[in-house]
Write a structure and sequence with these properties.
Blueprint (H helix, E strand, L loop, with lengths): L1 H6 L2 H50 L14 H7 L10
């Protein structure tokens, strides 16, 4: 895309500049450029915020989903089962 803009020669750029000057006038161009600058600044701020949120979410430990919550196996149950000794005389 930027290569396409770079391929535009000086003559077409000059014609575009003259058309913008005629359409908007000398007083409106600074306001127009100021608005474009603010828009670019807001876009950049939003991109930076999105990148920081993405980085923060990648650093967090994921919470297990119901599919990842598996019931313990028989071996795990045997390890955690506590046996009580039987009373004498039973």
């Amino acid at each position: 895309m930027f290569n396409d803009v770079a391929m535009i020669g000086m003559e077409p750029m000059l014609i575009i500049f003259i058309l913008v000057l005629v359409l908007f006038g000398g007083k409106k161009i600074p306001e127009l450029m100021r608005g474009v600058g603010r828009g670019v600044g807001e876009l950049q701020k939003g991109l930076d915020e999105g990148k920081s949120h993405l980085a923060a979410s990648l650093r967090e430990e994921p919470t297990p989903t119901p599919a990842q919550m598996v019931t313990p196996t028989v071996e795990e149950k045997e390890k955690t089962t506590v046996t009580t000794p039987s009373a004498p005389g039973n």
